[in-house]
Amino acid sequence: MELEIKNELTRIVNAFKIDGNVTDIEKINIGHINNTYRIFTDGEDDYVLQRINTNIFKDPHKLTENILGVTSFLGKKITENGGNVKRETLTLIETKTGGHLYSEESGFYRLYIFITDSTSYNSAIRPILFHNAAVAFGKFQKLLSDFPAEKLHETIKNFHNTPSRFNDFLTSVEKNLSGRADSVKTEIEFIKQRKDFYSLITDKISCGIIPLRVTHNDTKLNNIMIDNTTDEGVCVIDLDTVMPGSLLYDFGDSIRFGASSAKEDEKNLDKVYMDLSLFEEFTKGFLSQAKESIQKLPIGAIMMTLECGMRFLADYIDGDKYFALHYEGQNLDRARTQLKLVTDMEKKLPEMNKIVEKYNK
Description:
Elements lengths: L2 H11 L8 E7 L6 E7 L5 E5 L8 H21 L4 H4 L13 E3 L2 E7 L4 E2 L7 H17 L18 H14 L9 H8 L7 H7 L6 E3 L8 E4 L5 E4 L6 E3 L1 H12 L17 H12 L9 H22 L11 H29 L3
Antiparallel strand pairs: 1-2, 2-3, 3-5, 4-5, 6-8, 7-10, 8-9
């Protein structure tokens, strides 16, 4: 990292009430949305600095209210249970002028305490990691089960409203801003063929069959910090998309990301399938903590994978305006892996249902 950039970031960090002095800064290359940096200090804590992507999160103040509300609620319960608040939930640092956001011409910034001796994994290199992540996400749901979900702001409107996402997708196809739609007709048709499926969860939330809960809404494996010694899930991170929703969303997105046999942008689709052993590991861990809407868990996995696939494909057709890219065509590769996973999940649905029944005790 260039010295000029480090000096600029150090100046921003020093606008917060940190312990000690900044000694080094490293870019963290995880996540598609915000710019993230690890801040090393000579004090008790290291920190994570993020510049919020206001193209995605239009109102950083409401975003911060959500995060503070949830982390404060979690902090009280963790303390009551004799846990370590600084390690088991995110801690936002106040600015020297008050509040938890620092803003200037370059954008809005926030600072968290860095969770030491832990690692964020992009894939389940050992099955126990996926199991323990499931326990952590299930515990997150359990601890927040009595939080008033209706008090949370909708930081991204209709984020997991799959029918709305489908309508957005159709609009992208119709407008065809990049001129790429003709080259992905097979993928477009795959998504259109399942149009009657997309309202299954939202309809049941609307009529009260599926309860509204606080949900993370982006439960990828790499949004859990795993203890370096015990392999246990330490803390759920990346709370930007914490909103009212369904437990099915959190379960489903975890399976979409973590039970895949291949990386999210794998070009060779023959390598892509849903690993049933990983599905079982996650289901076992998740249901050890959270047991709501149990019978529909596999549907949540298919729904979230389809939704993510259509979002990647829509962004490709729009000209790659939303998700960060590391190479040309990455959004199309991402979309194709999701659609291949959907095909495999649909075939394995009876087996998925049996696994859920096994741990529904």
